[in-house]
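Thread: "does anyone have the structure for this chain?"

Original post by V.I.:
We have the sequence but no experimental structure in hand. Need at least a predicted one for the grant figures.
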Amino acid sequence: MSETLPPPVWVNTKNLLQQLFDDLATQSRVAVDTESNSLHAFREQVCLVQFTTTNADYLVDPLVLRDLNILAPIFSNPKIEKIFHAAEYDLICLRRDFNFSFANLFDTMQAARVLGYPAVGLDRLLGDKFKIQTDKRHQKANWAARPLTKEQIHYARLDTHYLFALRDVLEKELREKGRLVFAKEDFERACLFEETKHKVNGASWERFSARKDLSLRELTILAYLCKWRDKEAEKLNRPPYKVIMDDVFVLLAKNPPEQKVDLSAVGLSEKQINLWGDGVLAAIRRGVSAPLVERRQTEAKNDAVLRRLEKLKIWRKNLGQEMGVESDVILPKPYLSALAENPPRNVEELALVMKGTPSRVEKYGTQILKVLGAKNAN
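Reply from O.Q.:
Generated one for you, tokens below.
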């Protein structure tokens, strides 16, 4: 597949946004993608939204057009199929920034996973199916920078331009393998609303709380270091790791220095020490003397639950290897804990737990019940 592509439509005015909507509203399917700046900002945001229709490729600039509410009916319309590649992250970002809801989705990456493709990146699939080459260097670009380069614009439009063709190829293969219904159920579950977790200043220390090599005092020092770093990162609008890395914080917490001259020993550069040495030492002093933080406790599962969980994991892994797919294609992760914690006694109860994927209940229900030790497994 080789062609010379016309320039995409750059949508940065209300009039152009209206024209885009008018085109989208007439389509039975549209291809969609987003680009964000997670590697370059404290609070990530969608910096570009790409659409492809039968008429054109569009690049929408949400940094200029803050209000994209006009597009909400497109995403929620069950009569218009939205084609994504690796939809999960895009949906999280679009829900978070624009409060969109979704219906009628086709995810080409999940389709490839259900088919058992060993490599499911868009660049690999486009190369294998259509001999299209994409430049992965732009994946980590700062998409909030303006103007975008010609190369970035070309890369962004390719993320949606060939999705119609890729979708059709994968759907045909899913039908041939009898797995289309699995994929469709996965697409439907992806559309379900999930509460967006917002970043809270200083709360990032809690991800260290499960580490058994850190005492409560060391965790307390880490908590104050993280609170300081989050405030500094927000002020500079950069990801916290671009201020000071986590592994440096762990060393600081384990061996708290008292003077700036000691900071270089844990890996801080001279520039970091000059910029933030006083702030780091102040945070450490507060952590040394503050009341101890409470370690977040995860509810321990009892032995019976853990045994059922392990049996389910072994069963789906073995079956996945037989089918040539990842284990979560056999039994999606959301159902693992639910089945282990409240094991169904019969097919009716299993169908209730797994109501989002009735085709898997039909195909694997008896096996799942046997794995769980149900008396009425047949």
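V.I.: this helps a lot. The chain has three domains: 9-190, 203-289, 303-371.
O.Q.: and Residues 216-236 form the longest helix (21 residues).
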